[in-house]
Amino acid sequence: MADFQTSTHRAKWIFAPHDLAEKYKAANQRAIETLEKYGATRMEVDVDGSLLYREAQVNSNDKHSRPKALNIEEEQFLRMFYENKLREVCGAFYFPHKIQATALIYFKRFYLQWSVMEHHPKDIILTCIYTACKIEENHVSAEELGKGISQDHQVILNNEMLVLQSLEFDLIVYAPYRSIEGFTDDVGDFCHADDDQLQSLKETAKEEVDKSMLTDAPLLFPPGQLALAALRRANEVHRVLDYERYLENMLVRQNSIHNSTELIEHLNAIDSSVRTYKFPSEKDMKHINRKLRSCWGLSSHDDSKKRDKKSKHKSKQSAD
After folding, report:
1. Which of 54, 129, 257, 316 lies in disulfide reach of 103, CB 3.0 to 4.6 Å?
2. Could you read off the pLDDT of 35-54 as tens digits, one per residue?
Protein backbone atom coordinates (compact mmCIF):
# COMPACT_ATOMS: atom_id res chain seq x y z
CA MET A 1 0.00 0.00 0.00
CA ALA A 2 1.21 3.53 -0.81
CA ASP A 3 2.73 5.41 2.12
CA PHE A 4 2.65 9.19 2.53
CA GLN A 5 6.03 9.24 4.29
CA THR A 6 7.81 7.94 1.15
CA SER A 7 5.57 9.74 -1.36
CA THR A 8 6.35 12.50 -3.87
CA HIS A 9 3.51 14.42 -2.20
CA ARG A 10 5.59 14.69 0.98
CA ALA A 11 8.97 15.04 -0.75
CA LYS A 12 8.07 17.62 -3.40
CA TRP A 13 4.71 19.28 -2.74
CA ILE A 14 4.75 20.42 0.89
CA PHE A 15 6.38 23.84 1.16
CA ALA A 16 7.61 26.29 3.75
CA PRO A 17 5.48 29.47 3.72
CA HIS A 18 8.33 31.57 2.29
CA ASP A 19 9.01 29.08 -0.51
CA LEU A 20 5.33 28.94 -1.43
CA ALA A 21 5.14 32.73 -1.58
CA GLU A 22 8.23 32.79 -3.82
CA LYS A 23 6.62 30.35 -6.26
CA TYR A 24 3.52 32.54 -6.61
CA LYS A 25 5.76 35.59 -6.99
CA ALA A 26 7.87 33.93 -9.71
CA ALA A 27 4.83 32.86 -11.75
CA ASN A 28 3.33 36.35 -11.48
CA GLN A 29 6.63 38.01 -12.45
CA ARG A 30 7.06 35.80 -15.52
CA ALA A 31 3.58 36.75 -16.72
CA ILE A 32 4.37 40.44 -16.17
CA GLU A 33 7.54 40.09 -18.26
CA THR A 34 5.57 38.30 -20.98
CA LEU A 35 3.01 41.11 -20.98
CA GLU A 36 5.74 43.72 -21.39
CA LYS A 37 7.40 41.73 -24.19
CA TYR A 38 4.39 40.55 -26.21
CA GLY A 39 1.55 42.84 -25.11
CA ALA A 40 -0.51 39.82 -24.01
CA THR A 41 -0.05 36.93 -21.59
CA ARG A 42 -2.50 34.18 -22.50
CA MET A 43 -1.04 31.00 -23.92
CA GLU A 44 -3.17 28.98 -26.34
CA VAL A 45 -2.90 25.19 -26.20
CA ASP A 46 -3.12 23.67 -29.67
CA VAL A 47 -4.66 20.26 -30.35
CA ASP A 48 -1.16 18.75 -30.50
CA GLY A 49 -0.38 20.17 -27.04
CA SER A 50 1.94 22.92 -28.27
CA LEU A 51 1.81 26.32 -26.58
CA LEU A 52 1.36 29.56 -28.45
CA TYR A 53 1.13 33.14 -27.20
CA ARG A 54 -2.04 34.89 -28.25
CA GLU A 55 -1.43 38.08 -30.21
CA ALA A 56 -2.65 41.27 -28.58
CA GLN A 57 -5.62 42.96 -30.24
CA VAL A 58 -4.79 46.30 -28.67
CA ASN A 59 -1.93 48.65 -29.42
CA SER A 60 0.67 47.79 -26.78
CA ASN A 61 2.72 50.86 -27.79
CA ASP A 62 -0.07 53.16 -26.62
CA LYS A 63 0.65 53.93 -22.97
CA HIS A 64 -3.00 54.66 -22.25
CA SER A 65 -4.21 51.31 -23.63
CA ARG A 66 -1.30 49.24 -22.31
CA PRO A 67 -2.77 46.53 -20.03
CA LYS A 68 -1.95 46.28 -16.34
CA ALA A 69 -0.98 42.90 -14.98
CA LEU A 70 -2.82 41.23 -12.12
CA ASN A 71 -1.00 41.47 -8.82
CA ILE A 72 -0.40 38.46 -6.58
CA GLU A 73 -3.50 39.10 -4.44
CA GLU A 74 -5.71 39.37 -7.53
CA GLU A 75 -4.31 36.10 -8.83
CA GLN A 76 -5.11 34.51 -5.46
CA PHE A 77 -8.68 35.80 -5.61
CA LEU A 78 -9.16 34.33 -9.07
CA ARG A 79 -7.81 30.95 -7.94
CA MET A 80 -10.16 31.04 -4.93
CA PHE A 81 -13.13 31.77 -7.16
CA TYR A 82 -12.39 28.84 -9.45
CA GLU A 83 -11.55 26.45 -6.64
CA ASN A 84 -15.13 26.98 -5.49
CA LYS A 85 -16.31 26.44 -9.07
CA LEU A 86 -14.36 23.19 -9.12
CA ARG A 87 -16.24 22.04 -6.03
CA GLU A 88 -19.55 23.01 -7.63
CA VAL A 89 -18.77 20.91 -10.72
CA CYS A 90 -17.78 17.92 -8.57
CA GLY A 91 -20.99 18.36 -6.61
CA ALA A 92 -23.07 18.49 -9.80
CA PHE A 93 -21.61 15.11 -10.85
CA TYR A 94 -21.89 13.67 -7.30
CA PHE A 95 -18.20 12.83 -7.29
CA PRO A 96 -16.83 11.51 -3.96
CA HIS A 97 -14.71 13.70 -1.69
CA LYS A 98 -11.51 11.96 -2.82
CA ILE A 99 -11.95 13.08 -6.45
CA GLN A 100 -12.79 16.63 -5.41
CA ALA A 101 -9.76 16.78 -3.10
CA THR A 102 -7.43 15.30 -5.73
CA ALA A 103 -8.65 17.75 -8.38
CA LEU A 104 -8.22 20.67 -5.96
CA ILE A 105 -4.66 19.67 -5.16
CA TYR A 106 -3.88 19.28 -8.89
CA PHE A 107 -5.30 22.76 -9.47
CA LYS A 108 -3.23 24.26 -6.65
CA ARG A 109 -0.06 22.60 -7.91
CA PHE A 110 -0.68 23.72 -11.49
CA TYR A 111 -0.74 27.37 -10.46
CA LEU A 112 2.57 27.03 -8.67
CA GLN A 113 4.02 26.66 -12.18
CA TRP A 114 1.79 29.10 -14.08
CA SER A 115 0.04 32.42 -13.64
CA VAL A 116 -3.72 32.70 -14.13
CA MET A 117 -2.80 35.33 -16.73
CA GLU A 118 -1.26 32.56 -18.85
CA HIS A 119 -3.88 29.81 -18.56
CA HIS A 120 -7.52 30.47 -17.67
CA PRO A 121 -8.61 28.62 -14.49
CA LYS A 122 -12.01 27.95 -16.09
CA ASP A 123 -10.31 25.56 -18.50
CA ILE A 124 -7.82 24.11 -16.04
CA ILE A 125 -10.39 23.07 -13.39
CA LEU A 126 -12.09 20.80 -15.94
CA THR A 127 -8.86 19.06 -16.92
CA CYS A 128 -7.94 18.67 -13.23
CA ILE A 129 -11.30 17.02 -12.52
CA TYR A 130 -10.97 14.81 -15.60
CA THR A 131 -7.46 13.71 -14.54
CA ALA A 132 -8.55 13.13 -10.94
CA CYS A 133 -11.40 10.90 -12.13
CA LYS A 134 -8.97 8.79 -14.12
CA ILE A 135 -6.38 8.44 -11.36
CA GLU A 136 -9.07 7.60 -8.77
CA GLU A 137 -10.59 5.02 -11.16
CA ASN A 138 -13.94 6.78 -11.43
CA HIS A 139 -13.70 7.33 -15.14
CA VAL A 140 -15.85 9.97 -16.79
CA SER A 141 -15.23 10.76 -20.44
CA ALA A 142 -14.20 14.26 -21.47
CA GLU A 143 -17.32 14.40 -23.62
CA GLU A 144 -19.57 13.55 -20.67
CA LEU A 145 -17.84 16.05 -18.39
CA GLY A 146 -17.97 18.83 -20.97
CA LYS A 147 -21.59 18.14 -21.89
CA GLY A 148 -22.65 18.12 -18.23
CA ILE A 149 -21.55 21.74 -17.76
CA SER A 150 -21.99 22.98 -21.36
CA GLN A 151 -18.27 23.28 -22.11
CA ASP A 152 -16.26 22.16 -25.13
CA HIS A 153 -14.71 18.81 -24.19
CA GLN A 154 -11.82 19.43 -26.60
CA VAL A 155 -10.52 22.11 -24.21
CA ILE A 156 -10.24 19.42 -21.51
CA LEU A 157 -8.24 17.14 -23.80
CA ASN A 158 -6.04 19.91 -25.21
CA ASN A 159 -4.92 20.86 -21.69
CA GLU A 160 -4.36 17.32 -20.46
CA MET A 161 -0.64 17.01 -21.29
CA LEU A 162 0.01 20.56 -20.06
CA VAL A 163 -1.56 19.72 -16.69
CA LEU A 164 0.29 16.40 -16.41
CA GLN A 165 3.63 18.05 -17.18
CA SER A 166 2.94 20.88 -14.73
CA LEU A 167 2.22 18.29 -12.04
CA GLU A 168 5.52 16.63 -13.00
CA PHE A 169 3.41 13.46 -13.43
CA ASP A 170 3.09 13.18 -9.63
CA LEU A 171 -0.52 12.06 -9.68
CA ILE A 172 -0.83 10.16 -6.39
CA VAL A 173 -2.02 12.63 -3.76
CA TYR A 174 -3.07 12.16 -0.14
CA ALA A 175 -6.22 13.88 1.06
CA PRO A 176 -7.14 14.38 4.74
CA TYR A 177 -10.44 12.46 4.54
CA ARG A 178 -8.87 9.05 4.96
CA SER A 179 -6.85 10.35 7.92
CA ILE A 180 -10.09 11.56 9.54
CA GLU A 181 -11.46 8.02 9.36
CA GLY A 182 -8.36 6.61 11.03
CA PHE A 183 -8.11 9.27 13.72
CA THR A 184 -11.82 8.96 14.53
CA ASP A 185 -11.39 5.22 15.14
CA ASP A 186 -8.35 5.99 17.31
CA VAL A 187 -10.33 8.58 19.29
CA GLY A 188 -12.98 5.92 19.93
CA ASP A 189 -10.36 3.58 21.40
CA PHE A 190 -8.84 6.42 23.43
CA CYS A 191 -11.95 7.80 25.12
CA HIS A 192 -14.53 5.01 24.58
CA ALA A 193 -17.02 7.42 22.99
CA ASP A 194 -20.22 5.91 21.65
CA ASP A 195 -20.88 5.45 17.93
CA ASP A 196 -23.24 8.42 17.63
CA GLN A 197 -20.67 10.77 19.17
CA LEU A 198 -17.92 9.50 16.87
CA GLN A 199 -20.12 9.77 13.81
CA SER A 200 -21.02 13.37 14.63
CA LEU A 201 -17.36 14.17 15.27
CA LYS A 202 -16.33 12.62 11.97
CA GLU A 203 -18.97 14.35 9.85
CA THR A 204 -18.22 17.76 11.34
CA ALA A 205 -14.49 17.17 10.85
CA LYS A 206 -15.07 16.43 7.15
CA GLU A 207 -16.93 19.71 6.81
CA GLU A 208 -14.00 21.48 8.49
CA VAL A 209 -11.52 19.80 6.13
CA ASP A 210 -13.59 21.05 3.19
CA LYS A 211 -12.85 24.57 4.41
CA SER A 212 -9.11 24.04 4.84
CA MET A 213 -8.85 22.48 1.36
CA LEU A 214 -9.79 25.87 -0.14
CA THR A 215 -6.83 27.59 1.55
CA ASP A 216 -3.07 27.20 0.99
CA ALA A 217 -2.92 24.73 3.89
CA PRO A 218 -2.75 21.59 1.66
CA LEU A 219 0.50 22.99 0.19
CA LEU A 220 1.95 23.77 3.61
CA PHE A 221 0.96 20.86 5.86
CA PRO A 222 0.63 17.08 5.50
CA PRO A 223 -2.87 15.60 5.28
CA GLY A 224 -2.64 14.06 8.74
CA GLN A 225 -2.21 17.50 10.31
CA LEU A 226 -5.09 18.89 8.24
CA ALA A 227 -7.22 16.05 9.62
CA LEU A 228 -6.11 16.65 13.21
CA ALA A 229 -6.88 20.37 12.93
CA ALA A 230 -10.34 19.58 11.55
CA LEU A 231 -11.01 17.06 14.33
CA ARG A 232 -9.96 19.60 16.93
CA ARG A 233 -12.43 22.15 15.52
CA ALA A 234 -15.12 19.45 15.40
CA ASN A 235 -14.39 18.52 19.01
CA GLU A 236 -14.94 22.15 20.04
CA VAL A 237 -18.50 21.66 18.77
CA HIS A 238 -19.23 18.17 20.15
CA ARG A 239 -16.97 18.03 23.26
CA VAL A 240 -16.21 14.33 22.89
CA LEU A 241 -12.74 14.25 24.49
CA ASP A 242 -9.84 16.15 26.05
CA TYR A 243 -8.13 16.84 22.76
CA GLU A 244 -4.73 18.05 24.03
CA ARG A 245 -4.39 14.93 26.16
CA TYR A 246 -5.30 12.83 23.14
CA LEU A 247 -2.62 14.54 21.01
CA GLU A 248 0.06 13.95 23.64
CA ASN A 249 -0.97 10.29 23.97
CA MET A 250 -1.01 9.82 20.18
CA LEU A 251 2.45 11.34 19.72
CA VAL A 252 3.92 9.02 22.36
CA ARG A 253 2.34 5.96 20.72
CA GLN A 254 3.54 6.97 17.25
CA ASN A 255 7.08 7.90 18.36
CA SER A 256 6.53 11.14 16.44
CA ILE A 257 9.36 13.52 15.59
CA HIS A 258 7.04 16.35 16.71
CA ASN A 259 6.30 17.26 20.31
CA SER A 260 2.83 18.45 21.31
CA THR A 261 3.87 22.13 21.31
CA GLU A 262 5.11 21.95 17.70
CA LEU A 263 2.06 20.04 16.56
CA ILE A 264 -0.34 22.48 18.20
CA GLU A 265 1.50 25.37 16.51
CA HIS A 266 0.88 23.69 13.14
CA LEU A 267 -2.78 23.07 13.94
CA ASN A 268 -3.15 26.71 15.00
CA ALA A 269 -1.64 27.84 11.69
CA ILE A 270 -4.13 25.67 9.78
CA ASP A 271 -7.01 27.11 11.83
CA SER A 272 -5.73 30.61 11.11
CA SER A 273 -5.74 29.96 7.35
CA VAL A 274 -9.41 28.95 7.60
CA ARG A 275 -10.39 31.92 9.77
CA THR A 276 -8.66 34.46 7.54
CA TYR A 277 -9.97 32.98 4.28
CA LYS A 278 -11.61 35.79 2.34
CA PHE A 279 -13.68 34.95 -0.71
CA PRO A 280 -13.57 37.67 -3.41
CA SER A 281 -16.59 39.93 -3.73
CA GLU A 282 -18.55 40.37 -6.95
CA LYS A 283 -16.94 43.81 -7.29
CA ASP A 284 -13.48 42.26 -6.89
CA MET A 285 -14.21 39.69 -9.60
CA LYS A 286 -15.53 42.25 -12.09
CA HIS A 287 -12.37 44.32 -11.65
CA ILE A 288 -10.08 41.26 -11.92
CA ASN A 289 -11.85 39.87 -14.99
CA ARG A 290 -11.63 43.25 -16.70
CA LYS A 291 -7.87 43.38 -16.06
CA LEU A 292 -7.49 39.74 -17.11
CA ARG A 293 -9.15 40.29 -20.49
CA SER A 294 -6.85 43.25 -21.03
CA CYS A 295 -3.81 41.06 -20.22
CA TRP A 296 -4.98 38.56 -22.81
CA GLY A 297 -4.96 41.28 -25.47
CA LEU A 298 -8.74 41.56 -25.64
CA SER A 299 -9.94 45.15 -25.80
CA SER A 300 -13.14 46.54 -24.30
CA HIS A 301 -14.28 46.89 -27.93
CA ASP A 302 -14.53 43.08 -28.08
CA ASP A 303 -16.90 43.13 -25.10
CA SER A 304 -18.99 45.84 -26.76
CA LYS A 305 -19.30 43.77 -29.93
CA LYS A 306 -20.44 40.75 -27.90
CA ARG A 307 -23.03 42.84 -26.06
CA ASP A 308 -24.25 44.31 -29.36
CA LYS A 309 -24.53 40.85 -30.84
CA LYS A 310 -26.57 39.63 -27.86
CA SER A 311 -28.80 42.71 -28.02
CA LYS A 312 -29.47 42.16 -31.73
CA HIS A 313 -30.24 38.51 -31.09
CA LYS A 314 -32.72 39.42 -28.35
CA SER A 315 -34.30 42.09 -30.56
CA LYS A 316 -34.74 39.57 -33.36
CA GLN A 317 -36.38 37.09 -30.97
CA SER A 318 -38.75 39.83 -29.76
CA ALA A 319 -39.65 40.77 -33.35
CA ASP A 320 -40.32 37.13 -34.16
Report:
1. 129
2. 988 888 887 776 655 666 55
